[in-house]
Amino acid sequence: MIERYTRPEMAALWSDETKYATWAQVELLASAAQASSGVVPEAALADIAAAPLPSVARIRELEGERDHEILAFLAAWTETMPPESARWVHHGMTSYDLVDTAQGLLLARSADLVLDAARALTGLLVDRAVDHWDTVCVARTHGVHAEPTTFGHKLAVHAHAMGRCLERLTAARRAVAVGTLSGPVGTYSHISPQVEAYVCGALGLGVEPVPTQVVARDRHAELLAALANTGAVVEQFALEMRMLQRTEVGEVEEPRSGAYQGSSAMPHKRNPTTSERLCGLARILRANAGAAYENIALWHERDLAHSSVERVVLPDSLAIAQYQLVSAAALLAGLEVDAERMARNLRATHGLIYSSEVFLALAADGMDRERAYRLVQAAADDARTTGSPLTEALAARGVNAPEAWFDPRRFLGNRDHLKSRLDALRTSILRTDTLTKEDPRHVEL
Questions:
Q1: 1-91: which CATH topology?
Q2: Which end of the chain, N or C, is more open, meaning fewer C-beta atoms within 10 Å of its C-beta?
């Protein structure tokens, strides 16, 4: 995990201290479940519960000798237990009963942080879309002026895209919030399924229905795919903000501190660096999703090829996704919107953006469609070449275009249903929050 792109709460979840504390939690719950059925002596359970967590340094020391992190953890943890009690730790379990169940809990908690950030950004997009619902600007297709729209409409596009991300993230959280305590090769040969049910239930996790020796890795791929998709949606928003900040466009500007410096050489520079950063981070999320797909196909009941990959891509993707979402929300919250510049840009082509209104009006008035299109196209070409208003070029061709045809509001009169969809999105944001917390696998931070 790179500190620069990791928020403190996510870093704490993926620290070695948290990992080993979660391992101890899983082991203690498994011992408690087996004590209740008479397998583990009550006295041993008391000693296991009283044992302090070993230091990370001690685990690392033993791992250097044994080349096995789980056995190093168990050896370090049981050092302070009476031998007659220590022998009951990890009873009937295999390594990934511990690792995957603990990881399911950490993934669920991490996904909750990402979901919280995604909801916040979605809600803010809805709010600012409503604020700028009537802030008229020009829409661009292929980077070229097209027709009038509003800045609120632009933001609504991103709001609904984020709404879909919330649905995918919620489903992915459900997929990874599972564990298994089924013993070697997943047959429950030395441990009862009731132990698994007790431990996973206590942790708020579902159970892998037919385990091998590991939790199925398509679950992890689903999570990283949802994170990559979310990252791409944030990138789409950030890319729009980058392009609108270009000098010749100048319709929005990122928030900046009073001490901001954009260039070591050119004092005038005000660069869209936050937007650029958000775009760059999306590339990492996509690459990591590819690595997660490679982890799905393991040899037979398990191999270890996925482990080294997951140590990198799981914490990195979750950290980057949360950072990206929080940063995008901060950018949007402080975004300066220049409505006057938007109005000037509407006028920049001297009426060309109203060509469709003229074309349709001529066709509705009885002119052949092809003739009407070609007439307006030729007038537009003349206006572009000479820099004169489109009205003059049309007049030269015998078309007296009334001023009403060049009113941007003519393009914006049928948008009430779009605004009602924003209201529905706001309601769905609250619903996804409620559904996540009502899921039996939800674990509060």
A1: Fumarase C; Chain B, domain 1 (1.10.275)
A2: C
